[in-house]
Design goal:
With about 190 residues, the chain is mostly helical. The chain has helices spanning about 10-15, 20-25, 30-40, 45-65, 70-85, 90-95, 120-125, 135-140, 155-165, and strands spanning about 105-110, 150-155.
Length: about 190
């Protein structure tokens, strides 16, 4: 059975319990997300992983050669900003962390959707996963009755703050569906 790599590990759940450790976790959440599979479900690297590594190292070396170490440091540090305490990184938490047990996922209807290809329209994305992100706002326009009564957010910064400060919310405050053991056939 495949493991769900979106769900934090048991170690994360044990360590991330208060405002301080949640703040650290939020700051480094992209690294936890990226490295978690290497520890929880390691696979031997294939040819494409080695090819990718070589290309990435060559591009990094070229950047340092032509533009210096500051340009490389800028990209590394911007990863922390873009995936940590930055308001736009709030979507990582807002999409699937359960603040209301009656609702599985949440949408964000704020101005940052203009900069994120409408990633905030998350309920709409779950309902219609094949609609491109830049068209998801139309789903809400066409069928507002399905989305108006759902809880949503207008601030990703507020979501980050709520996650850090609410002692009842933690790494496992997520909806995780059990895999279906039977498939239903329609006749």
């Amino acid at each position: 059975m495949a493991m769900d790599m979106d769900v934090p590990s048991q170690i994360e759940a044990l360590l991330v319990r208060n405002a301080l450790t949640k703040s650290i976790w939020v700051t480094f959440q992209l690294f936890f997300y990226a490295l978690r599979p290497l520890f929880l479900n390691p696979k031997p690297p294939g040819v494409w992983e080695f090819f990718n590594l070589i290309v990435q190292l060559a591009l990094d070396a070229a950047m340092v050669y032509f533009w210096g170490w500051k340009s490389f440091a800028y990209l590394i540090l911007s990863t922390f900003v873009g995936g940590g305490m930055h308001p736009m990184a709030g979507h990582f938490i807002s999409e699937h962390y359960v603040f209301n047990p009656e609702q599985e996922t949440y949408s964000y209807y704020g101005p940052l959707n203009l900069l994120t290809w409408s990633v905030g329209y998350h309920n709409e994305h779950h309902d219609f996963p094949r609609i491109p992100g830049n068209k998801l706002y139309r789903v809400k326009e066409i069928a507002p009755e399905y989305y108006e009564d759902l809880e949503s957010y207008k601030s990703w910064s507020q979501v980050i703050y709520m996650y850090i400060m609410d002692c009842t919310i933690g790494p496992f405050s997520r909806m995780k569906r059990k895999p279906s053991t039977t498939s239903k056939k329609t006749e």
